[in-house]
Predict the structure.
Amino acid sequence: MSVNSDQSVLLGYQRRWVADPSPVKMIEKSRRIGLSYAEAADDVLYAASELGANVYYISYNKEMTQGFIQDCAGWAKAYQMAASQIDESVIEVDERQVLTYTIKFDSGHQIQAFTSNPRNLRSKGRPGERLVIDEAAFVDDIQELLKAAMAMTIWGGQIRIISTHNGEDNPFNELINDIRAERYDYSLHRVDFDEALADGLYQRICQVTGQVWSREGEAQWRQQMINRYKPNQDEELFCIPAQGGGAYLTRVMIEACMSPAPVLRFDGTKAYNALPEPARAAEMDDWIRENLKPLLAKLNPQRRHALGQDFARSGDLSVIAPLEIGETLHRSVPFLMEMHNVPFKQQEQVLFAIGNGLPRLSGVAIDSRGNGAYIGETAHDEWGAIVDQVQATESWYRERMPRYKARFEDGTITLPQNDDLVEDHRAFKLVRGVARLPEGKTSGQRHGDGAMACVLADHAADLDATEIDFIRVPRGGPATLDPDDDHDDFTDDWGGGAW
């Protein structure tokens, strides 16, 4: 049975890929176009056939590996192939434990998925065996992996290399260039976003999701996807590797350091901004009490905290990122506060509510360029020497960004799980060897604002400053030191703080 026997199952570019019998084939592709899904379909037929052989699948993380093996199980059921359930097990490789997922077929062959350690391939390579390397540009050491893999072709094995790009200097792109220069006789495929659309990608999405397809709808959806991936649309969608090594922080690296956490948003509408300042302040107080106070109340009072703000008045977003420093020095952003077109005084309200609500506040960093100078000064008036009014110069980026990147590489930072925040981080590019945000918008209203707030918070946590602790002062009198005293008469002008 051939995957191509039912023309409605796979799209044109998927069919062309699985129909190519080359011993070594590569594809540079747009994101999320279903290449791995098509590969799973072909691999099930190959492993289930007595004329086939074992298939080994490698990717950069556990989630992709699980997803692929589940696709294989789905295809085995669709083809009515006799196969075992997915077996999750641990194997020993050079005295190290490696998690694997396996489906066995009555043919005596199996599909096995595991991590991208090159050592895992050293025992593979029996006649006809197939290796699939998915998102190859993102594996830990693609050069060593390919060196180990090529031995599989000696006895008639097959290698399939699938990936989106990850920078001009990445070994994946270098290998593609070598193939184009005819240094290798590997087969090379390329499918960008528009080519996938021309082959029916959006029509298939509509079919699966129950939408009605139209040319106008497809054009609108295409533009939405391009806007979503800005400024990385060329690399992520159109197979054009970014110069200078691609995005400074890869999507894989960022998403691995994320977990669910709130992202709050306040938009200054035309009607709201037209109110007298006391009315705006009262409405903001209500919003803070309802939305911010519950989050601040959940913070661990034993932990040190820091805060960063990337300021904007109307064009970009103004983002505040609190940061908790754990016992092991792991840093976590418990929530993110985004403001758009919010007046200075109300941004000050929100900033003070968060800063004074953070337990053991030990550092504050405010983007104080341009209009941000006002917020930087008011923050310094409020908290004194623990505030750094940051002028983000090239030298500041040069010193700060390698430290921030190291937190992702070491897994010592946790950010809210949010796609906009991923794209904000992806916006950092190397300019003259220094990672920084490019000029102009990076995505919609954004200019890497959330990422910059997190960088500033990380910087604030490194400041050599003494943490703030205080006791509220009641109106008209000195502070009481009596722990049983009733605080009902205390002023709430600071919007939070350490009681």
Remarks:
- Residues 474-499 have pLDDT under 50 and may be disordered.
- The radius of gyration is 27 Å.
- The chain has two domains: 3-207, 251-461.
- Residues 277-297 form the longest helix (21 residues).
